[in-house]
Sequence to fold (134 residues):
Amino acid sequence: MSRANIGTLNQQGYISFFILLIITFLVGAGYISCHKAQAQERMVDYEARKIQAVYLADSGLEWARAALAANTNWAGGKMDFGGGEIEVSVIPSGSGYQVISKSKFGGAEQGRIALLTIDDEGQLIISVYEELYN
Fold:
């Protein structure tokens, strides 16, 4: 082989190596982008389930309010609702009822605590509303 041919082969080898590096970089960047997108999708999914659990916990308070309006001796209960679960417990207090509502939805859990009191018209109202931390 002549020196000219060897120089051409060396240049082709460098170009092939350079192309291989570019392809490796692009594959790695694609993998990282895909991994980040999947992680963000999981976070968004969890936040959606958490919000649904909040609404379920609030629904438990309304369920307790309606049940106590019909039966003042109601002590609470469990209900499966919309793919989630609500657990409500009622504790009579001097001026009304203390209600604890816990919900689970797809791995997310939320809790609310409220004080139900009787207003001037004889209706049960939520006078205190707080998030329950586990």
In short: The chain has one domain: 3-131. The chain has a mean pLDDT of 87.
